[in-house]
Amino acid sequence: METDLDPLQLLTTRQAAELLQVSQRTVERLIRCKGLPALKVGGQWRICASHLAKWIEGLNDCELSSPVLTPDPTKRETC
Q1: Are the C-beta atoms of residues 54 and 11 closer than 8 Å to each other?
Q2: How far apart are CA 35 and CA 37, in angstroms?
Q3: pTM as predicted
């Protein structure tokens, strides 16, 4: 996966959500439950753009159909 993202660029959860085309809440779930690398700055999550790209590259087809990425609306959020 080619990326034009600056390796030192820190994304907010909103920016990461836009790149992944998911909700901000889903990004927060991915941080907590699926090991999306992130750090807190001033109490808010930040995701390093290059780490996000590497994390995406590391996903396999099995993980892409994970309930975290495609939540069941009838079930409560769990890790």
Answers
A1: no
A2: 6
A3: 0.67
